Amino acid sequence: MAKNKPSQVFQNRLKSVRIAKGLSQGELAEKSGITRQAISAVESEIYLPSTGVALQLASILACRVEDLFSLVLSEEVIEGTFIGVPPVETPSVPLRVKVATVRGKRIVRPVTGLGEVLSYTVPADGYLVDTTTERSGIKARVRLSRERTAVEQDISVAGCDPAIFLAGEHLRRRKDHVAVVGWTMGSMAALRALERGEVHVAGLHLFDPATGESNLPFLKRTLKGTAYDVVTFAIWEEGFLVRSGNPKSIRDAADLADPNVTIINREEGSGARLLLDQRLRAAGVTSSHLRGYESIARSHFEVARAIAGQQADVGIGIRSAAQLFGLDFVPIQSARYDLVVPTPYLKWHPTLAGLFDTLVSRPFRNEIEALGGYDTRETGKMHSLR
Question: Range of 88's domain?
Answer without folding.
Answer: 75-146
